[in-house]
Each structure stands twice: as C-alpha cells, then as structure tokens.
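User: What would this chain look like folded?
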Amino acid sequence: MSGKMTLTLDCDTYGRLLAEYLPKVIENDAENEQAITLAEALSHRENRSLEETTLLNLLLTLIEKYEQENYPIEESEPHSILWELMEANNLQEKDLSDILGSRTIVSDILIGKQIITEKQAVKLGQFFHVDSSKKYSDFSFTGK
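Assistant: Here's the prediction, encoded as structure tokens.
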C-alpha cells in the first residue's frame, strides 16, 4: 500500500452543483463574464470541496476554450517577448548582460538586430523560469 489517499467525487453533491450553476459551452461575452465570476468565487472559497474543485476546473476549461476562440493571442517575436519579460520583472538591459554575454548583445537582441541563439534561449528560459522550447506565442527564443 502506497499510503496515498484518493478522494472520491460524490456524484449527488456534484450533480446538485451542476443543477444549481448549469455550466454550458460559453457562447458570448456575458456568459463568459458569468463563468469568470463563478470561477473566481470558487477559487477563493476556503475549504473548497472536491466537487467544487471539479466544477471550477470545468468552468476554467469552458472559459479557456471561449477566450482562445474569441480572443486569440497573436504570435510575438522573441525580442518582443523578452521586452515584456524584462518589463514584468523590472529589469534593464544591464541585468541580462551576464546571461547573454554583453550589454551590446542584449541591446541588439532587443531592437531585433540580432536573433536569440538556442543557447541564449535556454539561459533566458532558466532565468525567467519559462519554457524556451515552445512556439513564439508560448515563449521561443530559438534561433540559429
């Protein structure tokens, strides 16, 4: 026996939650806002039950599907993503010079004059704690 406890979903309780909130495929912004409001309430609930967590996960899936279809994120160039990461972390060019080699290299990358190499992408991914191997929209610095 592994000592790992598995929680079991109470179908009656979950069924009552579904009947109360009537989650469905989101078709417009008003429905999306309703789903977001409910998801926020559930996510902040202390001692949330397994059934409430299951409903929350369902709502998050429905919200994500609606927003991906109606508000797609445009792909960004690697240097634009780097700018955003620097801004979000209150960093300046000098803060990345040790990672990328020099302030000149950082500057050239940020203005799009130089591409980010695969080795630099790995270093930046580790520094910012992001995956550097995905497509641009997810954060890609891959270059040759």
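The two ends are 50 Å apart (CA to CA). If you want, I can go into more detail on any region.
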